[in-house]
Specification:
Number of strands of chain B: 2
Order of helices and strands of chain A: HHHHHHHHHHHHH
Distance between the termini of chain B: 17 Å
Oligomer: heterodimer
Structural class of chain B: mainly alpha
CATH superfamily of chain B: MetI-like
Number of strands of chain A: 0
Order of helices and strands of chain B: HEEHHHHHHHHHHHH
Radius of gyration of chain B: 24 Å
Largest interface: A-B, 106 and 104 residues
CATH architecture of chain B: Orthogonal Bundle
Number of domains of chain A: 1
Number of helices of chain B: 13
Amino acid sequence: MSEDRMRMILFLSGSSAMLLFCLTPFLYMVIISLSGNPDFLSTKVSFEPNLDNYILILTNSTLHFPDYMLNSLIVSGMSALICVLTASLAAYAITRLPVPGKVFILLFVLAVSMFPQISLVGYLFKLMTNLGWINTYRALTLPYVAWILPLSLWILVSYFSQIPGELDKAALIDGCSRWQILIKVIFPVAAPGIFSTLLLAFIFAFNEFLFALMLTTDHGARTIPVGIASFQGLHGELPWGTIMAASTTATIPLLILTMVFQRRIIQGLTRGAVKG
Amino acid sequence: MRQHTFGQRKEALLFILPLALFLGVFVLTPVAGTIIGGMFRDTTFLKKEFIFLDNYRTLFADAAFRQSFRFTLLFVAVSVPLELALGTVFALLVNQPPVRFRTALRVSVLIPWAIPAAISGRIWELIYNYNFGLANYLLSALGIRSEPVNWLGNDMSAFFSLVAADAWKTTPFMAIILLAGLQAIPTELYQQAEIDGAGFLKRFIRVTLPILKPVMVVALVFRTIDAIRIFDIVYVITHGGPGGSTSSLSLYAYKYFLAGDFGYGSAVSFILFLTALGLSLIYINLGAFRKEFRKELP
């Protein structure tokens, strides 16, 4: 057998196994969400595909699913915007301006990103309680921004450092201030990088769980991961069809982003970790 | 050497100020608060009192704490190498597939990464359901075992159930990081090896692995630090059970916070903090890791 054939067989069997592993749980979620009988696999009941679970989570006001979803979108969106803005300023200074101890700052920020969330959340809970901010958007947004900053900074530093310094010099000679250079020169050139960072920051904020669990009390600010994790049935039995419908719906915005911007996400993630 | 004026420095610091404020107020102060808080008796009904290291004395005598510590380290030791191995295979598969499969493959691999951990926890909780979960269904459908397994009901299977769920969720991240390393390998190296008559496996060991090593170290660092603070999927899938055997340190501390015991919860958190810090310091000082980062710096 030729080497090429062998490679093709190896590739096909390997990717089939990989796809099976990656997609089965996801498809399982979707299938259960479409079924009137989540136990159809083991019992003799039929599958009965319908959209009842979806209609329930969208219309039943005691479940608060649309509230959780809206909270998640608002908190993640705000966090991503503020975070990328803050990180862009810092990344600009680190790559362009005479900042003392650049290497130290970057390594320090890296160390900060390695702090376990649990070592912050007890204090944050007390802080937000004292401020009367528990269960508000700002109680989540502000810690989220701080939490996602290290990753954003690393990615943006990597993008900004590839923009030639001559661009700045030309603008300086034209009489632009540093702020103007950032907005008029760097932002447009680095737009793809900034967009990737924004996307990743949004996804990370959307995924966050522990802060949201501790710092919210109800649908006023609770985000969708916590909402789904604390989903309880009325009579003790877990309503799996409903939970999976909520999970599928919550995943849709992330899936769309992932599918459309697959290349940007991969690029951004690898920039954050290693040279892309 | 260009001279920088005081004004330039001031301007530069102004750009960094927002970042410094965010990290100072919402990361560094909380950590300091946790360190100090761990030295207090701070529960709901008793007067707050400075007890210095008493919480830590209690902690080291606390069998449940030791169990959490053991679980957390064991979890890291089992899941991270598994994810590294799987991630390498995934990265090789998505690196240079036939062009028509490429986008589809990459998107599929990213799906588990994009789903929030709490939600993937729910999916796996259902998969492990004793009565009608997918895992038991597959076992009986494939004729491996007719009796259902109580996956989350005993220590050993609950542990590996969590490892599997975590591997599903995080292997994509590993694969993406390693993919970047693979793409940096010049194709000429492979061609040369091919001309020299090296087979697939030989090429992987001789050409790919040495070049991939620094990237592997970076991926390992990120995953280790992430795995040691594991919370979401444990909270959702086992909630620390059965009998506290899968309670991670984060979950253990969280339960104290939830019960209003901030002193003890802070002490547990601080131990986890120290463990993570110790590990990252070791890693950062590893030659390969440092070299990889130097390249990154402007």
